[in-house]
Amino acid sequence: MRTWIAALAAALILVSASGAWAELVVKTKSGKTYSVPVSADEIESILFTSGGGFSTSRYLGCYRDQGEPTGTNGRDLNGFVVNDGNMSTAFCTSTCQGKGFRYAATQYGSWCFCGNSYGRSGQADNCNMKCAGNPAETCGGSWANSVYQLY
Predict the structure, then answer these.
(1) H helices then E strands: how many in the chain?
(2) Which of 10, 41, 60, 125 is the right S-S partner for 147, CB 3.0 to 4.6 Å?
(3) DSSP-derived secondary structure for 71-120
């Protein structure tokens, strides 16, 4: 959700449906407006790409993790890992999206895991740690991943 808020700060998106057609209107910070007609039935998602570090994601829940303490061996999301004192949901999701993964997960406040599957260890209930880089957000917990689907 926070990613959408950040993205909307850069561009105001209005989709108004009229029958089977819609109009996608983008208004930039400088006041320029761009309009694209599109079939309302064909809209699946609106993606923000390039430049701003935006990623679009959807929170899927809190899931258990296990495996190698500082690597990806045996981890639920085992494609890539980074530990950073500036960790936030946006940092993790944009990192994983940039590397071509389908899922991202924050853990223990400062860890980010990327992968193409998740959930093999089941759900957890201890995603309660604040993100090191944004204390207003939750970044998993002890051996618990806050998992996001990337678009």
Answers:
(1) 2, 8
(2) 60
(3) SSTT-SS-SEEEE-TT--HHHHHHHHHHTT-SEEEEETTTEEEEES---T
CB-CB contact of 129 with 88 (8 Å): no
pLDDT attached to residue 2 = 39
> What is the spatial distance between Cα 66 and Cα 81, in angstroms, rounded to a whole number?
14
Cα separation, 130 vs 54, whole angstroms: 21
Give the architecture (CATH level 2) of 2-42: Beta Barrel (2.40)
Which part of the chain has CATH 2.40.50?
A: 2-42
- Helix/strand/coil for 3: helix
Q: Cβ of 44: how many Cβ atoms within 10 Å?
A: 7
State pTM to two decimals: 0.66
From residue 17, alpha-carbon distances to 8, 11, 37, 48 in Å are 19, 19, 10, 21
C-alpha 49: how far from chain center? 13
Nearest one of 125, 150, 139 to 62, comparing CA atoms: 125
The tens digit of pLDDT for each residue in 124-144 reads 999 999 999 999 999 999 999
